[in-house]
Design a protein that fits this description.
Helix content of chain C: 25-40%
Radius of gyration of chain C: 27 Å
Number of strands of chain A: 0
Order of helices and strands of chain A: HHHHHHHHHHHH
Helix content of chain A: 55-70%
Strand content of chain A: under 5%
Oligomer: heterotetramer
Largest sheet of chain A: none
Largest interface: B-D, 90 and 76 residues
Order of helices and strands of chain C: HEHEEEEHEEHEHH
Shape of chain C: elongated
Number of strands of chain C: 8
Shape of chain A: globular
Strand content of chain C: 5-15%
CATH class of one domain in chain C: Alpha Beta
Number of helices of chain A: 12
Chains: A mainly alpha, B mainly alpha, C alpha+beta, D mainly alpha
Strand order of the largest sheet of chain C: 6-1-8
CATH topology of one domain in chain C: Alpha-Beta Plaits
Number of domains of chain A: 1
Largest sheet of chain C: 3 strands, mixed
């Protein structure tokens, strides 16, 4: 391998890892602070710059947590599979970090390099979904290697949930791929230049909502955090993890939240294209990250609001609501674009109206169908 | 030169993964080794400039087949530890013999044409071309495949479904 | 019950109100600081955890009137081991859900505070690293011997035995109880006193009834004797 | 690298799969082995496509794509059968399932 290629790859990828690791620390602080405020608490506010009395709203908390995590004792349960217990957090982190390469973040210093960035690949979006799928294996590995019933239960729950929600996730991304005619992330970003975002249409909005819900489930965020439900399964698949391995899981979880929010921004929210902003390289990166943080703020807000779902509700929601709705959405989008081939305002308005009616009634009907049938409890053995 | 190093590393990964997957007594370890094999093969596909197939390999084999195998293992036997039973089948010797024979047969074509005549093409197919192929000349195949997958889905669900007994007092099979 | 609906947005509006309100309305933050709250309803020493380096907490026993964490054993003043209320009946040991209490009954009886002969706990250990602060031991104790403490500075460098509280650590006087939980302690003392007076009244009544009965019996016997003699 | 490297590698992988399918008793391991053989065949398809005269026709890619889809269907049905068999025999040992054999 030529040295030039290697250095170019490093120059293109190392900043990604650094930026997102820093943002991870900031996000943990943001999440704790926001959740605390939602619950009428203050949240972390003591830790700041060491050896001074400056507390900086507790911004030193993530660093302090990190130092604590590193120096904590690493416990491997008796009877656990030591090798896989060690490998699981690493395997969780690697795909999470890898998929960051598929986000169309064009740093200004990469202009002069060889085109080594992964988002220039012809099938970047497919790669994104494929590599995200590896995360499932890591979760199972962690649950299985711990030799703990709760861990294994959490792992199995996680697998069932991730596999189910991957289908609506991919199907809602299909809308965008259909429209752009490419799986290339850079082309998808380019197709949305000038405020022409995909979310600004009935089918695009529906697809975005489905994508966002499925992304919440895919990253085990509340209200879909059954795999790590602390009140049911202690902590799910990472019950038996402590110290640095736990920190790796934590990092992987947040990095995958960044990655999937980044993909949502790429697919539906116009990537780095700001509304009415000039197309400068730095500005587009800032714009991208701001949009990612808006999505993360909504995730935190939802976490502070919604209670956790039951397992049957979770699976039913994926298979009976999201999947049919996303299939209907693909059909609607296809017909709408077929009808809109000529530039005609009346036809556009009509297709929009029809699409809104069809999508709304489908969602409403599916919601009614998935309504749980309440009946009187039957007592079999007690009278 | 780079390609050669990558080829040797990736083929070593694939062969080791396959060997461990086939010989490991612990089934969960076997599945993890099989996943390593799939990953190595996906790297080889990338090396052959078939990036779409590499992505599909990861998506289908690691993301779906591996999970399915893990679920099947969890639903059937106790996997951890040594149960002390014989691992190989009764006719293992004849199986080994037949496998060796087939291996020799498979080696014949490369040996007959040694050294290899042609060099690799460097045409990189775009996913768009592939899509046009799938939608124009091969659309019937694609539809048949979709039908096959649906049938397999329904068949798998029916086959794996627990037998529902009408009488409640009989224990479930 | 459907999953999707306007309820999600209503809930989000509520949490948003809480989020914004917590920056503007101080009374929304109950954990912030106690000094501004209605004065007089809280103990004098209640306050924030020290912010500045070198500042000491005036008292590490309690934050508020209402805080409770781990159990303690009560004695009625004087030499703790002499006036311990616990009689080692082991009800709390049996009802403790995480089984963090360990009691060894004494072999001989000893006079307690009221002068009655009772057993006493030779060993009484509570492992507070296991205790879940459920207060069930307090609920079941028929002798008002175990109540909740609010001492919160418990950290220790010894990981194995540091959090195992022995009998000596657990014994606290009733006066201390009055200091940390005044209302609860007063209510409890009143109840004990009421029970005592009720018991005494009952005893008195029973004694009187017995006396009456004996008199009646004696009278009847006298009458019977008289009758026989006739 | 020449085509022959890939062919020999595929032959080795196929033989490993074959050995697994012939010598193991566990039904799930036999399924692993079948997957390994299918993947070896896929490797051959891709290698032949890469070294063919006109790769722009995409024959190898298309064939592999279809093979992967069929393999996925095969695994799903195979594992469903394994589970059904397990329910019946309480074992996934292939030598236990000999009720159709002549005694």
């Amino acid at each position: 391998m030529s040295l030039e290629l290697l250095t170019d790859i490093l120059i293109a990828t190392v900043p990604l890892a650094l930026i997102f690791s820093t943002l991870f620390a900031f996000t943990t602080w943001l999440e704790r602070k926001t959740l605390a405020r939602i619950q009428n608490r203050i949240g972390p506010n003591k830790v700041g710059i060491p050896c001074t009395r400056i507390s900086l709203f507790g911004l030193g908390q993530p660093a302090a947590d990190g130092i604590k995590m590193i120096f904590k004792e690493d416990i491997v349960p008796k009877g656990a599979d030591r090798l896989f217990h060690l490998l699981a957090p690493i395997l969780a982190l690697i795909p999470a970090m890898l998929v960051l390469c598929f986000l169309p973040l064009k740093f200004p210093w990469t202009e002069s390099l060889l085109p080594v960035q992964a988002f220039l690949l012809d099938s970047a979006v497919i790669f994104f979904f494929a590599i995200t799928g590896i995360n499932t294996i890591a979760v199972f590995m962690a649950g299985w290697a711990s030799r703990n019933k709760y861990s294994l239960l959490g792992g199995m729950r996680a697998i069932a949930q991730m596999v189910s929600y991957e289908i609506p996730l991919v199907l809602s991304a299909v809308i965008v791929v259909m429209r752009v005619g490419s799986l290339n992330a850079a082309e998808i970003a380019g197709a949305q230049a000038g405020g022409n975002w995909f979310i600004f249409s009935p089918w695009g909005l529906t697809a975005f909502v489905i994508f966002f819900i499925a992304a919440l489930a895919e990253t085990n965020r509340s209200p879909f955090d059954l795999p790590e439900a602390e009140s049911e399964l202690v902590a799910g698949y990472f019950t038996e993890y402590s110290g640095f391995k736990f920190a790796l899981f934590f990092l992987a979880e947040y990095i995958s939240i960044f990655a999937i929010s980044g993909l949502a921004v790429t697919l539906f929210l116009g990537a780095g294209n700001g509304p009415g902003l000039p197309n400068l390289p730095w500005l587009s990166i800032v714009c991208f990250l701001v949009k990612v943080f808006v999505l993360i703020a909504i995730m935190i807000w939802l976490r502070g609001t919604l209670p956790r779902l039951r397992v049957d509700q979770l699976m039913g929601f994926a298979w009976k609501f999201l999947l049919p709705l996303s299939i209907v959405n693909i059909l609607v989008a296809g017909f709408a674009w077929h009808a809109q081939q000529q530039e005609n305002t009346i036809i556009t308005v009509i297709t929009w109206l029809v699409a809104i009616i069809v999508l709304y009634s489908t969602a409403k009907g599916l919601n009614q169908l998935s309504r749980a049938k309440l009946k009187m409890r039957e007592y079999k053995y007690a009278e | 030169m780079n390609g050669e190093i990558a080829f040797w590393i990736l083929s070593a990964i694939a062969v080791l993964g396959a060997l461990v997957a086939v010989r490991k007594r612990n089934l969960v370890h076997g599945v993890f080794a099989l996943l390593v094999f799939f990953a190595g093969l996906s790297g080889l596909f990338l090396l052959l400039l078939a990036e779409f197939i590499a992505a599909v390999q990861v998506l289908v084999y690691i993301g779906a087949v591996g999970i399915l195998l893990l679920f099947a293992i969890m639903l059937t036997e106790r996997v951890a530890g040594d149960d002390g039973r014989r691992m190989t089948s009764r006719g293992w010797f004849w199986g080994l013999l037949a496998a060796t024979a087939i291996f020799l047969v498979l080696l014949l074509p490369p040996i007959q044409q040694w050294p290899a005549p042609e060099a690799a093409q460097t045409v990189e197919p775009s996913v768009e071309q592939l899509g046009h192929k799938l939608m124009n000349p091969y659309v019937i195949t694609l539809e048949v495949l979709a039908l096959l997958l649906t049938a397999a889905l329904i068949g798998a669900v029916t086959a794996a479904q627990a037998v529902r007994l009408d009488k409640e007092d009989e224990p479930p099979v | 019950m459907t999953l999707l609906g306007s309820g999600i947005f209503k809930g989000m509006a509520v949490t948003f109100r809480n989020f914004v309100g917590s920056y503007f309305q101080r009374e929304r933050l109950p954990t912030n600081d106690y000094s501004w709250r209605t004065e007089g309803s809280l103990p004098q020493h209640a306050g924030d955890y020290p912010k500045e380096e070198g500042e000491q907490l005036r008292d590490t026993t309690t934050v508020t009137n209402y805080s409770r964490n781990f159990p303690m054993l009560l004695h009625d003043g004087g030499e703790p081991a002499e006036t311990i209320r616990c009689v080692a009946c082991q009800i709390c040991e049996r009802s403790c859900p995480p089984q963090c209490i360990y009691i060894e009954k004494s072999t001989e009886k000893k006079e307690d505070a009221s002068g009655k002969m009772q057993f006493y706990p030779a060993t009484f250990d509570i492992d507070v690293s296991v205790c879940m602060s459920c207060q069930i031991c307090v609920e079941v104790c028929p002798f008002d011997a175990i109540v909740m403490n609010s001492q919160f500075e418990l950290s220790t460098p010894n990981r194995f035995g540091g959090l195992l509280l022995r009998r000596g650590d657990l014994l606290k006087s009733n006066d201390y109880y009055h200091k940390i939980h005044p209302e609860e302690a007063a209510a409890r003392d009143k109840r004990i006193a009421d029970e005592k007076t009720a018991k005494e009244a009952k005893k008195k009544a029973a004694a009187e009834a017995a006396k009456k009965k004996a008199e009646a019996k004696a009278k009847a016997e006298v009458e019977a004797g008289e009758g026989r003699s006739e | 690298m020449t085509l022959h490297h890939y062919l020999i590698l595929a032959a080795v992988l196929f033989t490993i799969g074959l050995i697994g399918a012939f010598t193991r008793r566990n039904a799930i391991v036999v399924l692993f082995s079948i997957e390994i053989m299918l993947n070896a065949a896929n490797l051959n398809f891709i290698a032949f496509w890469r070294y063919s005269d006109n790769p722009e026709l995409l024959y190898g890619i298309l064939f592999t794509l279809f093979a992967i889809a069929v393999a996925a269907a095969e695994v799903a049905v195979g594992l469903a059968l394994v589970i059904a068999v397990y329910r019946h025999f309480r074992s996934i040992d292939l030598e236990v399932m000999d009720t159709l054999k002549e005694e």
